[in-house]
Amino acid sequence: HELYDAALQEAQRTDPNALVIYDVPLLAEARSPSEFDLVVVVHTPAEERVSRLVGFRGLDPEAAQARVDSQASDEQRLALADVVLDSSRSIEDTRAAGRELCEELERAWPDRLDTVARSFPRKAS
Fold first, then answer.
1. Taking all residues of the chain, what is their mean pLDDT, rounded to a whole number?
2. In angstroms, rounded to a whole number, what is the distance separating the alpha carbons of residues 99 and 69?
3. Of 10, 18, 78, 125, which one has the fewest beta carbons inside 10 Å?
4. Quick one: pLDDT at residue 118?
5. Is 67 part of any domain?
6. How would you classify residue 83: left for phi > 0, otherwise alpha for psi between -120 and 50, otherwise beta?
């Protein structure tokens, strides 16, 4: 995606040590994880993703299942992760976990990303 790449280049030009967060919904399908210093996968099991598409987006169950089935499998997505955030709980819990991760990244960036990966679960619970 050219706009994202341009924004990244601008951030790096402005501050070579900038912490830049890419939000890449289809990383397993579209990009190489080696482009990134740390890959965080926000994970919810496929069944829950289908349920949310039906409940929150109004898709019929078959369309929701087809959308999930067209994406990379859980195993493929999780294999890319340095850190896995479990989003199967409430939105408040997911946001809290995201804030905790961001705080840890700010403390560790750019020299100690390995400590971040060790501080957070590698596998979804």
1. 84
2. 30
3. 125
4. 63
5. no
6. beta
